[in-house]
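Risk mitigation, structural track. In case the binding assays with zinc ion fail to produce interpretable data, a predicted complex structure has been prepared as a fallback.
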Amino acid sequence: MSTRPSTNPLGAAAARQARIDLAACHRLAARFGFNEGIDNHLTLIVPDHSDRFFLAPFGLHWSEVRASDFMEVDFEGKLRAGDGPVEDTALYIHMPVHRLAPQARCALHTHMPYATALGMLEDPRLEMAVQSALPFYEDISYDADYNGLAFDRTEGERLARALGEKSVLMMRNHGVLVVGRTVPEAFERLYLLERSCQAQILALSTGRALRPIPPHIVRSTIEQFWAGMKVGGLNRVELHFSALKRLLDRQEPDYAT
Ligand SMILES: [Zn+2]
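Fallback model:
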Protein backbone atom coordinates (compact mmCIF):
# COMPACT_ATOMS: atom_id res chain seq x y z
CA MET A 1 0.00 0.00 0.00
CA SER A 2 1.27 3.43 -0.84
CA THR A 3 -0.67 5.09 1.99
CA ARG A 4 1.30 6.67 4.80
CA PRO A 5 1.91 4.57 7.92
CA SER A 6 -0.73 5.10 10.59
CA THR A 7 -0.16 4.88 14.32
CA ASN A 8 -3.86 4.12 14.75
CA PRO A 9 -4.60 0.47 13.82
CA LEU A 10 -8.36 1.14 13.58
CA GLY A 11 -7.74 4.14 11.36
CA ALA A 12 -5.40 2.13 9.15
CA ALA A 13 -7.98 -0.66 8.83
CA ALA A 14 -10.71 1.85 7.91
CA ALA A 15 -8.44 3.47 5.30
CA ARG A 16 -7.57 0.09 3.79
CA GLN A 17 -11.26 -0.92 3.63
CA ALA A 18 -12.13 2.43 2.04
CA ARG A 19 -9.46 1.87 -0.61
CA ILE A 20 -10.74 -1.64 -1.34
CA ASP A 21 -14.35 -0.43 -1.64
CA LEU A 22 -13.38 2.48 -3.91
CA ALA A 23 -11.28 0.17 -6.11
CA ALA A 24 -14.27 -2.21 -6.34
CA CYS A 25 -16.44 0.76 -7.29
CA HIS A 26 -14.12 1.55 -10.23
CA ARG A 27 -14.03 -2.07 -11.41
CA LEU A 28 -17.81 -2.45 -11.15
CA ALA A 29 -18.53 0.86 -12.86
CA ALA A 30 -16.32 -0.27 -15.77
CA ARG A 31 -18.00 -3.68 -15.79
CA PHE A 32 -21.47 -2.10 -16.07
CA GLY A 33 -20.33 0.30 -18.82
CA PHE A 34 -20.57 3.49 -16.74
CA ASN A 35 -17.11 4.71 -17.81
CA GLU A 36 -16.18 6.86 -20.81
CA GLY A 37 -12.61 6.06 -21.84
CA ILE A 38 -10.29 7.02 -18.97
CA ASP A 39 -12.26 10.16 -18.09
CA ASN A 40 -14.33 11.00 -15.02
CA HIS A 41 -13.58 10.36 -11.36
CA LEU A 42 -14.89 8.33 -8.46
CA THR A 43 -13.65 9.79 -5.17
CA LEU A 44 -14.01 9.29 -1.43
CA ILE A 45 -13.14 11.30 1.67
CA VAL A 46 -10.19 9.66 3.45
CA PRO A 47 -11.27 8.18 6.81
CA ASP A 48 -10.02 10.37 9.69
CA HIS A 49 -9.19 13.20 7.24
CA SER A 50 -12.24 15.33 6.50
CA ASP A 51 -10.20 17.61 4.21
CA ARG A 52 -8.70 15.15 1.75
CA PHE A 53 -9.99 12.57 -0.70
CA PHE A 54 -8.84 9.41 -2.47
CA LEU A 55 -8.34 9.83 -6.21
CA ALA A 56 -7.06 7.35 -8.80
CA PRO A 57 -4.06 8.57 -10.85
CA PHE A 58 -5.25 9.88 -14.21
CA GLY A 59 -4.58 7.50 -17.09
CA LEU A 60 -5.65 4.28 -15.40
CA HIS A 61 -8.63 2.53 -16.91
CA TRP A 62 -11.27 1.91 -14.22
CA SER A 63 -10.98 -1.81 -14.94
CA GLU A 64 -7.37 -1.83 -13.71
CA VAL A 65 -7.60 0.38 -10.59
CA ARG A 66 -6.26 -1.30 -7.42
CA ALA A 67 -6.71 -0.36 -3.76
CA SER A 68 -3.04 0.64 -3.51
CA ASP A 69 -3.23 3.05 -6.48
CA PHE A 70 -5.17 5.84 -4.80
CA MET A 71 -3.55 9.16 -4.10
CA GLU A 72 -4.73 11.44 -1.30
CA VAL A 73 -5.49 15.00 -2.43
CA ASP A 74 -6.36 17.79 0.00
CA PHE A 75 -8.83 20.66 -0.44
CA GLU A 76 -6.04 22.92 -1.66
CA GLY A 77 -5.36 20.47 -4.48
CA LYS A 78 -2.07 19.31 -2.96
CA LEU A 79 -1.00 15.69 -3.20
CA ARG A 80 -0.67 14.44 0.38
CA ALA A 81 0.02 10.75 -0.30
CA GLY A 82 0.64 8.53 -3.29
CA ASP A 83 1.95 9.47 -6.69
CA GLY A 84 0.56 10.14 -10.16
CA PRO A 85 -1.13 12.70 -12.39
CA VAL A 86 -4.07 14.68 -10.96
CA GLU A 87 -6.51 15.63 -13.71
CA ASP A 88 -7.99 19.12 -13.56
CA THR A 89 -11.69 18.21 -13.39
CA ALA A 90 -10.97 16.03 -10.33
CA LEU A 91 -9.96 19.24 -8.60
CA TYR A 92 -12.60 21.46 -10.10
CA ILE A 93 -15.60 19.14 -9.70
CA HIS A 94 -14.80 16.74 -6.86
CA MET A 95 -12.82 18.99 -4.53
CA PRO A 96 -15.56 21.67 -4.17
CA VAL A 97 -18.31 19.02 -3.94
CA HIS A 98 -16.50 17.18 -1.13
CA ARG A 99 -15.82 20.49 0.60
CA LEU A 100 -19.30 21.99 0.28
CA ALA A 101 -21.72 19.01 0.37
CA PRO A 102 -21.50 17.11 3.68
CA GLN A 103 -23.56 14.20 2.27
CA ALA A 104 -20.91 13.72 -0.43
CA ARG A 105 -18.30 11.60 1.36
CA CYS A 106 -18.29 9.54 -1.83
CA ALA A 107 -18.70 11.43 -5.13
CA LEU A 108 -19.18 9.61 -8.42
CA HIS A 109 -19.15 11.59 -11.66
CA THR A 110 -19.85 9.63 -14.83
CA HIS A 111 -21.05 10.09 -18.39
CA MET A 112 -22.98 6.79 -18.19
CA PRO A 113 -25.05 6.40 -21.34
CA TYR A 114 -28.70 6.38 -20.33
CA ALA A 115 -28.56 9.01 -17.59
CA THR A 116 -26.49 11.22 -19.90
CA ALA A 117 -29.00 10.69 -22.72
CA LEU A 118 -31.82 11.82 -20.44
CA GLY A 119 -29.82 14.97 -19.65
CA MET A 120 -29.75 15.82 -23.36
CA LEU A 121 -33.54 16.19 -23.54
CA GLU A 122 -35.33 19.50 -23.26
CA ASP A 123 -37.13 17.98 -20.26
CA PRO A 124 -34.47 15.82 -18.55
CA ARG A 125 -36.61 14.64 -15.62
CA LEU A 126 -36.45 11.06 -14.42
CA GLU A 127 -40.14 10.19 -14.38
CA MET A 128 -41.65 8.23 -11.51
CA ALA A 129 -42.85 5.66 -14.02
CA VAL A 130 -40.81 2.60 -13.01
CA GLN A 131 -40.31 1.10 -9.56
CA SER A 132 -36.49 1.44 -9.68
CA ALA A 133 -36.87 5.22 -10.12
CA LEU A 134 -38.86 5.70 -6.92
CA PRO A 135 -35.86 5.91 -4.54
CA PHE A 136 -34.93 9.09 -6.42
CA TYR A 137 -38.23 10.84 -5.68
CA GLU A 138 -37.38 14.42 -4.64
CA ASP A 139 -33.69 13.44 -4.41
CA ILE A 140 -32.48 14.71 -7.81
CA SER A 141 -31.32 18.21 -8.67
CA TYR A 142 -31.31 19.31 -12.29
CA ASP A 143 -28.50 21.59 -13.38
CA ALA A 144 -30.05 24.13 -15.71
CA ASP A 145 -27.00 25.07 -17.76
CA TYR A 146 -24.01 23.51 -19.45
CA ASN A 147 -20.98 25.76 -19.14
CA GLY A 148 -18.24 23.82 -20.95
CA LEU A 149 -15.41 21.90 -19.29
CA ALA A 150 -15.02 22.36 -15.53
CA PHE A 151 -11.61 24.03 -15.63
CA ASP A 152 -11.91 26.31 -12.65
CA ARG A 153 -13.00 26.02 -9.07
CA THR A 154 -16.06 28.25 -9.43
CA GLU A 155 -17.70 25.74 -11.79
CA GLY A 156 -17.38 22.98 -9.16
CA GLU A 157 -18.73 25.34 -6.52
CA ARG A 158 -21.66 26.10 -8.80
CA LEU A 159 -22.28 22.37 -9.28
CA ALA A 160 -22.09 21.76 -5.50
CA ARG A 161 -24.67 24.51 -4.95
CA ALA A 162 -26.87 23.00 -7.67
CA LEU A 163 -26.63 19.61 -5.95
CA GLY A 164 -27.75 21.16 -2.65
CA GLU A 165 -28.74 18.47 -0.16
CA LYS A 166 -29.77 15.93 -2.82
CA SER A 167 -28.01 12.71 -3.79
CA VAL A 168 -28.03 13.20 -7.56
CA LEU A 169 -27.24 16.09 -9.87
CA MET A 170 -28.29 15.59 -13.48
CA MET A 171 -25.75 17.69 -15.37
CA ARG A 172 -27.42 18.99 -18.50
CA ASN A 173 -25.70 18.02 -21.78
CA HIS A 174 -22.94 16.34 -19.79
CA GLY A 175 -23.52 13.46 -17.31
CA VAL A 176 -24.34 12.89 -13.67
CA LEU A 177 -22.95 13.45 -10.21
CA VAL A 178 -24.09 10.90 -7.63
CA VAL A 179 -23.06 11.14 -3.98
CA GLY A 180 -23.41 9.09 -0.82
CA ARG A 181 -22.10 8.72 2.71
CA THR A 182 -20.36 5.46 1.82
CA VAL A 183 -19.09 3.78 -1.34
CA PRO A 184 -21.81 1.09 -1.29
CA GLU A 185 -24.53 3.73 -0.85
CA ALA A 186 -23.23 5.92 -3.68
CA PHE A 187 -22.66 2.94 -6.00
CA GLU A 188 -26.17 1.61 -5.35
CA ARG A 189 -27.59 4.98 -6.39
CA LEU A 190 -25.38 5.13 -9.49
CA TYR A 191 -26.47 1.63 -10.50
CA LEU A 192 -30.18 2.19 -9.86
CA LEU A 193 -30.12 5.60 -11.54
CA GLU A 194 -28.66 4.17 -14.74
CA ARG A 195 -31.10 1.24 -14.66
CA SER A 196 -34.13 3.51 -14.22
CA CYS A 197 -32.90 5.96 -16.89
CA GLN A 198 -32.40 2.99 -19.21
CA ALA A 199 -35.98 1.83 -18.59
CA GLN A 200 -37.32 5.34 -19.27
CA ILE A 201 -35.32 5.75 -22.50
CA LEU A 202 -36.43 2.31 -23.70
CA ALA A 203 -40.06 3.12 -22.88
CA LEU A 204 -39.84 6.50 -24.66
CA SER A 205 -38.25 4.80 -27.69
CA THR A 206 -41.56 3.06 -28.38
CA GLY A 207 -43.06 6.47 -29.13
CA ARG A 208 -45.91 5.74 -26.74
CA ALA A 209 -46.77 7.87 -23.70
CA LEU A 210 -45.33 7.09 -20.28
CA ARG A 211 -47.76 6.23 -17.51
CA PRO A 212 -46.40 7.82 -14.30
CA ILE A 213 -47.09 6.19 -10.93
CA PRO A 214 -49.55 8.35 -8.93
CA PRO A 215 -47.75 10.48 -6.27
CA HIS A 216 -49.55 8.84 -3.32
CA ILE A 217 -48.41 5.39 -4.53
CA VAL A 218 -44.87 6.75 -5.01
CA ARG A 219 -44.84 7.98 -1.41
CA SER A 220 -46.30 4.80 0.09
CA THR A 221 -43.86 2.65 -1.92
CA ILE A 222 -40.93 4.70 -0.63
CA GLU A 223 -42.19 3.96 2.90
CA GLN A 224 -42.15 0.27 1.94
CA PHE A 225 -38.57 0.59 0.66
CA TRP A 226 -37.46 2.05 3.98
CA ALA A 227 -39.34 -0.59 5.98
CA GLY A 228 -37.70 -3.35 3.93
CA MET A 229 -34.18 -1.90 3.90
CA LYS A 230 -32.92 -4.59 6.27
CA VAL A 231 -33.25 -8.29 5.53
CA GLY A 232 -32.30 -10.68 8.33
CA GLY A 233 -30.77 -7.70 10.13
CA LEU A 234 -28.53 -6.88 7.14
CA ASN A 235 -28.72 -3.80 4.94
CA ARG A 236 -29.79 -4.46 1.33
CA VAL A 237 -27.32 -1.93 -0.07
CA GLU A 238 -24.40 -3.52 1.81
CA LEU A 239 -25.57 -7.00 0.74
CA HIS A 240 -25.63 -5.96 -2.93
CA PHE A 241 -22.19 -4.37 -2.79
CA SER A 242 -20.76 -7.40 -0.94
CA ALA A 243 -22.21 -9.73 -3.58
CA LEU A 244 -20.63 -7.63 -6.33
CA LYS A 245 -17.28 -7.66 -4.51
CA ARG A 246 -17.44 -11.47 -4.27
CA LEU A 247 -17.85 -11.50 -8.05
CA LEU A 248 -14.66 -9.42 -8.31
CA ASP A 249 -12.94 -11.67 -5.73
CA ARG A 250 -13.56 -14.63 -8.02
CA GLN A 251 -12.77 -12.99 -11.35
CA GLU A 252 -10.31 -10.11 -10.76
CA PRO A 253 -9.06 -10.29 -7.16
CA ASP A 254 -6.16 -7.90 -7.79
CA TYR A 255 -8.58 -4.97 -7.27
CA ALA A 256 -8.10 -5.38 -3.52
CA THR A 257 -4.29 -5.32 -3.64
ZN1 LIG B 1 -17.77 15.03 -16.96
